[in-house]
Specification:
CATH class: Alpha Beta
CATH superfamily: Metalloproteases ("zincins"), catalytic domain
Distance between the termini: 10 Å
CATH topology: Collagenase (Catalytic Domain)
Shape: globular
Number of helices: 5
Structural class: alpha/beta
Strand content: 15-25%
Number of strands: 4
Length: 172
């Protein structure tokens, strides 16, 4: 497909949660994330340039994301999105995962989104659930690609980039 990157997506959605057919559609998420990767490609550092990528996307409930939040960030309670970047330098000084090789795609990591938190936040942000999920998925993807927001200026830049990403048509 023109305007996309080759993407191997491991997708899961908690079947116990209320979810729309589009939200549960792995092909929809694969096409959307692939289009976003294509759009972001010119901005990526050389270490993240690859003809193909691999990543995971999980749509979960508050209890599962709260457990991950406690285990990995040492913060109590649920959050909206977590991103586990495979290409970040590990905190113990070990190098990041190897870059793309001809044998397979570049592993980016995993995005985990709480559907329950997203549903609560959507009205607070003045839009529907679909838009909230796009916002959270784009935020997670940018984190996998090395974006961060330790201060207001970097947060503003990241949010501006997310707004551009979510303009990609939801029905590809």
């Amino acid at each position: 497909m023109a305007g996309t990157k080759d993407l191997d997506l491991a997708f899961s959605a908690d079947p116990a949660l209320e979810i729309s057919p589009q939200q549960a559609d792995a092909d929809y998420w694969q096409a959307l994330l692939s289009a976003w990767l294509h759009q972001l490609a010119p901005e990526l550092p050389p270490a993240l340039q690859a003809p193909g990528y691999s990543m995971g996307l999980s749509l979960v409930g508050d209890s599962e994301i709260a457990e991950l939040n406690a285990d990995w960030r040492h913060k109590q309670g649920p959050t909206d999105v977590l991103a586990f970047a495979a290409q970040d330098e590990a905190t113990d000084g070990t190098p990041p995962m190897p870059a793309y090789r001809e044998s397979g795609p570049l592993e980016l990591g995993d995005i985990v989104i709480s559907l329950e938190t997203a549903a609560r936040q959507a009205p607070e942000h003045g839009h529907g659930m679909e838009q909230e999920l796009l916002f959270l998925a784009s935020h997670g993807l940018l984190h996998l690609l090395g974006w961060d927001h330790p201060e207001e200026a970097s947060l503003a830049a990241m949010l501006a980039r997310q707004k551009e990403l979510v303009k990609v048509p939801a029905k590809l």
